[in-house]
Amino acid sequence: MSDTGELRRLARAVGLMAEWEDAHGRQQAVSPETMRVVLGALGYPAATGKEARDSLGRLREAQQAAPPPLLTTFPGEALRLPGARPGRYRLTDAEGVSVEGEAVPAAGGARITAPALPGYYKLECGERALTLAVAPPHGHRISEACGGDKAWGLAVQLYSLRRAGDGGVGDYLALRDFAAGAAAQGADAVAISPVHAQFTADPSRFSPYAPSSRLWLDVRHAEGESLMPNAPPFVPELAAEWARLEALDLVEWPDVARARIIRARQLYAAHLQAPQEALRDALDAFRTLGGSSLENHARFEALHAAQLAEDKSRWHWRDWPVALRDPDSAEVARFAEAQAEEIGFHVFLQFLADRGLATAQSAMRDKGGRIGLIADLAIGVDGGGSDAWARQTEFLSGVEIGAPPDIFNTRGQGWGITTYSPHGLVANGFAAFREMLGAAFRNAGGVRLDHVLGLRRLWLVPEGASPADGCYLRYPMDDLLRLVALESHLHKAIAIGEDLGTVPEGFRPRLQETGLAGMRVMWFEQTSRGFKAPARWSREAVAMTSTHDLPTVAGWWSGADLAWREKLGGGPKDQAQTRLVERGKLWAAFRQAGVARGAAPPLEDTAPVADAAAAFIGRAQCDLALLPLEDAVAAVEQPNLPGTVDEHPNWRRRLGPPVERLFADPAIEQRLRGLARARRAP
């Protein structure tokens, strides 16, 4: 067989797609050079035909040697155990209750019948032990959480919230008051922007979708005064900086992060000097529960700061001294011992963040919200962060994830982030994926999975290459969907999959079978004749006016998004005329749905349009309608403008009024009443 033939055999076995269909429906072939680079990054050298054969042999040998550490199945299904011998087996559930049975012969191993109840089980068969994940037919659905009612809620960028004394950024205390206030208005859910851990040592990093860790939280939103009644007062200099930042319309992330860390260090010092027994015990319990994952993250944070202080070029952990690149090395252990107080500080920060988020969830549920917070789970992490450092065998390296060329991005996209290796996941029993889901569900009543198509395939771009020179890598979708359904079931929390844009045929029905609600955004619910009536939107989905990456209703109506396109040198020449026609179609859809009357208002009169849009998604058949806070307050500017870095103030805009007065604002109150009324309409 030729070298190219050997290469394609290996690529197929690894899960690389040698061909893919572009946005125009044309088949595209991946170059042999790209396949070799990506295969090498995945740990399967293929520079020559011999290397490709050897890599394929290693892969098949590993696959046939023994069952993987974790198998997924459904209740009562026949389950084959590759490489296992027939005979007695024992199953032990999470409560420690064991049952025994007889594994019967099967091709290439043995076969058992899966337990009747969903859950995680320890399976012992002969000398082998593995984990069995028995998934329910579907996860916890919105209809189950809300008793079949058509529910509604709000979506908020956490940083955008205001409260008195917040120091320039929305925090978990503001979220608590916002969530409680929303529930008091009848909301069942508040979807929040990602709160994954960022880089404390580098406050210039603030994209919520490129975090350091998806297992831990963004401590820049933490506050400790609510947990420490005897907290020390602000020193005058910090109080002045706090007030300056609070008065700004945009979040100054570097300054905000520095100020909040200074304040947190004051609180930590006060705790060490005179610990309150209840706080100390809660912190100790939190640290014990966090285990090695929390310790590794805290160690990374301290190491990252120490390495940057020594040499600014050591931002990425791969540029650290060799001994520090391994989280289990003796050198890292010695560092942790010498810097115990600093590492304890980072544990303290995570404790404050966890308590803050938990309090917000409890506040909403206590006020009657049947779902509560919906956490946002980013598709990946920065390869230089704590997750990638601590779990190197489970992450891709040497590649970034992105998107192939399409109509809007003719060169493709590189997102500058990485994610799990499918082979690393299987080899490690999906441990990192399960922990990530558990962390997301921990203080929430639901989770939104960003770019849910990534459970099936991801576009990989070799480091330094053009995004156009990438290829798709398949993921074990069946296993991943079962694990999402199981975690959703165990936490009694809903799961939402961001499925916007073009997805493969059959993918959305598969999500619905698993209990993952899709997303239906007003801007995309159109045909060539106009906007779809909300009564025709999918029931098992979430209705929204817009998202963080798209224009707000007021911005779209007034043409603010077109102005940004023109400013940045993009957009078709006839976009203004096209928008004029689209406005007419949208207003006609509003009138037909019974949420607007009379002639369309002028461009500058956006309030009636925001009112109508809120009621419009309220009329949707979807089980849940989420109104972005930007549209609740009729804001013109959107949170993020894709394709920009410094040209647009992404992830920085703050919204008013403060949460203390937000729901008393007559215009906002009227808009939410219209949404709630529409949800109750037959």
Automatic annotation (TrEMBL):
It holds the Pfam family Glyco_hydro_77. GO terms for molecular function: 4-alpha-glucanotransferase activity. GO terms for biological process: carbohydrate metabolic process. It catalyses: Transfers a segment of a (1->4)-alpha-D-glucan to a new position in an acceptor, which may be glucose or a (1->4)-alpha-D-glucan. Its EC number is 2.4.1.25. Belongs to the disproportionating enzyme family. This is 4-alpha-glucanotransferase. It comes from Teichococcus oryzae. The lineage of its organism: Bacteria, Pseudomonadati, Pseudomonadota, Alphaproteobacteria, Acetobacterales.
